[in-house]
Structure formats: C-alpha cells, structure tokens
UniProtKB/TrEMBL annotation:
<dbReference type="InterPro" id="IPR020471">
    <property type="entry name" value="AKR"/>
</dbReference>
<keyword id="KW-0560">Oxidoreductase</keyword>
<dbReference type="InterPro" id="IPR050523">
    <property type="entry name" value="AKR_Detox_Biosynth"/>
</dbReference>
<dbReference type="InterPro" id="IPR036812">
    <property type="entry name" value="NAD(P)_OxRdtase_dom_sf"/>
</dbReference>
<dbReference type="Pfam" id="PF00248">
    <property type="entry name" value="Aldo_ket_red"/>
</dbReference>
<dbReference type="InterPro" id="IPR018170">
    <property type="entry name" value="Aldo/ket_reductase_CS"/>
</dbReference>
<dbReference type="GO" id="GO:0016491">
    <property type="term" value="F:oxidoreductase activity"/>
</dbReference>
<dbReference type="InterPro" id="IPR023210">
    <property type="entry name" value="NADP_OxRdtase_dom"/>
</dbReference>
<protein>
    <submittedName>
        <fullName>Aldo/keto reductase family oxidoreductase</fullName>
        <ecNumber>1.-.-.-</ecNumber>
    </submittedName>
</protein>
<feature type="domain" description="NADP-dependent oxidoreductase">
    <location>
        <begin position="22"/>
        <end position="291"/>
    </location>
</feature>
Amino acid sequence: MTLPLPTHSVPLGKSGISVFPIAWGMWRLARADGEDDIGAIVARIEAALEAGITLFDTADIYGCDAALGFGGAERLLGKALAGRPDLRQRMVIATKGGIVPGVPYDSSPDYLHKALDASLERLGLPAVELYQIHRRDCLAHPRDVADTLAAMVESGKVRAIGVSNYSPAEFAALQAFLPFPIVSTQPEFSAMHYAPLYDGTLDQAMAHDAAVLAWSPLGGGRLVSAWRDPVAKLLVAQGERYGTDTAAAALSWLMAHPSRPIPIVGTQTPERILSSRDALKVQWTASEWYKVLETARGERLP
C-alpha cells in the first residue's frame, strides 16, 4: 500500500489560502541574472505557473551575495511584475525579513516595519500574502515581535504571518503573544537534513495546522549530484520506477510525510521548474520511505 500524496491544492496553514503543494524560491534569483534580464525571470515565473505552482518565496536578504546586493531578488521580481502585472493575480507571494548583514538579526518593531515597507516598495506591491521572520532575533522579546506582526496584518500590508528557521520553542513563544495563528514554519528539510522529523518541528506544525515550507529540499543539490551517495541511489531508483528523475523522488519523499511539507524548489532553469510537478507521480510504500530515512541516518531504526 502506497502512502498518500497531497492533491493539487493544499492549505497554507490557517490563512484561508490554498496553494500548490510545491513552491518556487528565489534565493538564487539575483545570482542567476543581470538586473536587466527581466525576460528570463518572467520565463521562470511562467514555467512555475504552468507547473501549477502558486506560492512564490523570496526574502529581502536574497541577493546580498550577488552584485545586486540586499533586496536584489525582490527588486527583480518587482520589475518582472511591473512588466507583466497579469501574473500577480495567479501568485501567492511570500517574503521574509529580519536578517541584517553585520548584526546579524533584528526583529525590533522599528526595523521590521521599515523592512516590510522596503520589501513592498521593491516588489511594487501594496501587500503580500505571507510575511515571515527569517531568523529569530535572540534580543527581541516575542511579545514585541508579535505586536509588530499584528500591526502589519491590521494595516492590510500582510495577510498572514509565518516563521523561518524557528525552533518549536521559539514558535510557541511567539504564538503565545499573537491574536491569530502562525500559518507557516520554514525549516531546512530533506532526505539529507531530516532533523525536523525528530526536533518537534513537524509535530508542532501538525498540532497547530501550520504549513511546513521546506527549504533546500534537495540537500543543497547534493541529492541530485552525489551519484555515489547511498541516499541518492535510492532516490534515483525510485524516480526511475515512476518514469521520472531523482529530484522528483526527493521532493515526493518529503511530501509523503503527514505534515504535508511544501518543498521550495530553488532551480532557476525553466525546464527544471516545470518538471518539479513530476514529484506528484512518485509514490512510496512505508517500507521504501523508511529505507531512505535509515540510509540517511546510517543505521537501522530501533
């Protein structure tokens, strides 16, 4: 008996928004193009939409390691949407703030309000569907962060809020001061980084009906490039069994978990963005799924 996979629509937590069970991320967007290559970015967005993808993930820090600098990815997306405003109505846009180079984190009320406004200006949008704290600021009281996020939602600039790279305890502390639910948590999660299975992240998400947005679902590309890795070999075989590739198998392995993780695909190649939908073709039995986990752990499960 095979494990159930998500349908073509899953809830984005308790936001009231439904999205495709795979997202497209823009971490590498500013590194892939020059500032004027907007046509290439539109082609990627169109490929994602053709694949069925509706959730588009970016952050103000994306581009910091490229020539465009801080805000680069948001700026490129904003230019693409300015040239093709018809695309916006088909997109659920998520962005993040709170990482400040050299600090390194700032979730103070003053900073977050300015960060959101700056993101919206770069995107050329009056609002986004999801705004996430990118990483926890240890010096910010969760009560103050919650008050700031609540004000963002009340202003109409943000529909729902989420967290990224938060531990379950950090999630719980923030939620305790919020008047509405955190709709998403964004951990690193792949067959090579399976900590969320054991650290309580996925369990908490299921308990709160929060969406799990999995970043680096291909293990930073290692699952599709390290051909001699035993985990990759299992994924290669599983993909071939269903007439597709290793990446599709790696994504489907995540999606088979009952927390229904939404993998964020980071490829900047339109053909590969389009092929990500093949993940819905790959099925797993419980034995096959656990074999991948045991191989990743390097030991038999007790």
